[in-house]
Amino acid sequence: MKIHHLSCATMCPNGEKLLSGEGSLLGKAELCAHVLLIEASDSLVLIDTGFGRDDVANPKRLGQPFRATIRPILSADDTAHSQITALGLDPADVRHIAATHLDVDHAGGLPDFPDAEVHVFRPEMEAALKPSIREKLRYIPGQMAHGPKWHPHDVAGDEWMGFEAVRVIGGLDPEVVLIPLPGHSRGHSAIAVRDGDGWLVHCGDCYFHHDEMKTPPSCPVGLRVFQTVVGYDGKARRSNQERLRELAARHGDEVRLFCAHDVTELRALQN
């Protein structure tokens, strides 16, 4: 079993100081889309997908508000499909995708792997397929128009380190656990992956900056505002952030937390 840490999107919004805590106010920040590629015993597994080839070919489908504010740099080389090929692997071997959530910058690669089962917390799938008025901007119908092989999950009494959880891919080595943590979106989840004697925990957009997992936490003001504006349930999001901080404090020698968009965390895990 081997785990690759990929960045399947590069986003450069203005306001470097406000978003990263460093640099100039007028500079460009750098955000990634942290994706895990797991070489399992008989298949490949993705945790999130970043942008896909259709997004690169037709950037307008991402929507003008997203493109104007987040300023994605769209390259076919950044897509999970291309990076899997560059590693000498076959994209057709991706048989499972576990999604933290289905926002535009997390689900764009779904059409590139049409035969993969897409594991997601049921409320998130329902939100993406039938969004409320306030949710419409976060989901892109074209990213799901191919008819993904949905495998929605519900909690049913299982737990992982004190969190409600679901073991999502039966018979797979390594173990993959979906941990519902709503707040950023209606059905947002973290995904824990067994890595030897420990766990990698992809926290998606539960937080955006590595200092948010410290005690006491801190976050650049621009990211604090952004999380508030785009969040579905602010109270739930803040509560789940605190639960993750407690997890890190209690089990820091056993779990490695990271979020989707922090390049500092990505580079540390790639080294």
Biggest sheet strand order reads 4-1-2-3-5-6-7
Gross morphology is globular
What order do the SSEs take from the amino end to the carboxyl end, as H and E? Answer: EHEEHHEHEEHEEEEEEEHHEH
- Return the CATH topology: Metallo-beta-lactamase, Chain A
* Broad structural category: alpha/beta
End-to-end separation in angstroms reads 18 Å
The CATH architecture can be named as: 4-Layer Sandwich
Q: Give the radius of gyration.
A: 17 Å
Q: Could you walk me through the main structural features you see in this protein, from its secondary elements to its overall organization?
A:
The protein is an alpha/beta fold and 271 residues long. It has a single domain, classed as 4-Layer Sandwich (Metallo-beta-lactamase, Chain A), CATH 3.60.15. Helices cover 25% and strands 25% of the residues. It has helices at residues 16-20, 53-57, 64-70, 80-86, 122-129, 221-230, 234-251, 263-270, and strands at 2-11, 31-39, 44-47, 72-73, 94-98, 117-121, 149-153, 159-160, 163-164, 166-167, 176-180, 189-195, 198-202, 255-258. The protein has a seven-stranded mixed sheet. Strand 8 and strand 9 form a beta hairpin. It is globular. The protein starts with a strand and ends with a helix. The model has no long low-confidence stretch (mean pLDDT 96).
